[in-house]
Amino acid sequence: MEKPKRSGEFEIIRRLFAPLAEGMPGAFDLTDDAAVLDPAPGERLIVTADCLVEGVHFPAGAAPDEVAPKLIRVNISDLAAMGAKPWAYTLTTAFGPAVDDPWIERFAAVLGEEQKTWGIGLIGGDTVATPGPSTFTVTALGTIGAKQNPLRRNGACPGERVWVSGTVGDGALGLKAVRGGLSYVDDADRQYLIERYHRPTPRMALGCALLGVATAAIDVSDGLVADLGHICETSGVEAMVAQVSVPLSQAARSARDKDPALTESILTGGDDYELLFTAPSSAEGRIQEIGGDLGVQVTEIGVVVASSGGAPVRVKGPGGRELSFSRTGYTHS
Ligand code: ADP
Ligand code: MG
């Protein structure tokens, strides 16, 4: 097989990545050794990193359109879960053998679109080649006001309510569809689920609006049950979720109606990037108002209870029976 054409590291940086640093003064058009950042006075930096590996987080040979949006969105979703506004990011690319110039050109073009959508700019990174799977790492920087308390995972208290944004389970069902499953689901629904998997919607504005309202927050990446478990463990509490309250998209609902066994994937499957948060019951009106103002569905799905030494998260089915799962979330083992 002919070796794919790929420009050298410096050419890639100059031609494709430097334009993405336009408007970020401290990035020096990616011509220096490092970037220099001046957060606005009175602002704190919030920093997070995520890495996507070919064959693990996206299929081998995936198109740039299936990688770039997810790379940006999973990262800034972590900023949303802290209540931070996105600002800048670094990008480290390890291109595998099959990646050629057109792939990287399209990758950079989609990154440019994502930057516009989410209001961030590129400030640096590293470009290397690897004989192994392609690997992409983004470090995202966000800001919050110095006097604001970021949304931590550790503030949930017994008696508070559990909320989730958007709909749950689309990411997990989208992944099944990407892998060729869900053949019994309508084409339009399959497309919707696949789109939700490739291009999740990080809840940036909601995260910021929940500062001072939510007592704990996390974004749903590992699965609703596992991620609520993370809040519970860090907060030293437990939670009860009512399955009937968990909001499903029309596509997920119709898939689940055809195959009730999908309930487990919906509740434990991950990749939703919705915000899961807790708040006192007195905040219900305020939360609904925020959701209404932002046009984001917010749904109360459960309650925080004192620790009893049991499972951190219990899900009650329609008949009041507790559901049991063979797995609680996605872990890379
Ligand atoms: P060094 O050898 O010191 O690591 P590089 O040639 O790798 O320098 O990088 C030069 C400049 O280009 C630096 O400012 C670096 O941050 C930037 N850069 C390199 N790769 C990327 C990338 N994938 N995305 C964004 N910026 C990059
Ligand atoms: Mg380098």
Quickly describe the structure:
It contains ten helices and ten strands. With 333 residues, it is α+β, with helices and mostly antiparallel strands.
Describe this structure in words.
With 333 residues, the chain is α+β, with helices and mostly antiparallel strands. Helix 4 packs across helix 9. Helices cover 32% and strands 23% of the residues. The strands form two sheets. Strands 6-8-5-9-7-10 form a six-stranded mixed beta sheet. The model has no long low-confidence stretch (mean pLDDT 95). The chain binds adenosine-5'-diphosphate (ADP) and magnesium ion (MG). Adenosine-5'-diphosphate (ADP) binds next to helix 1, strand 2 and strand 3.
End-to-end Cα distance: 33 Å
Low-confidence stretches are: none
Helix content: 25-40%
Instruction: Please state roughly what percent of the residues sit in beta strands, choosing from under 5%, 5-15%, 15-25%, 25-35%, 35-45% or over 45%.
Output: 15-25%
In which order are the strands of the major sheet placed? Answer: 6-8-5-9-7-10
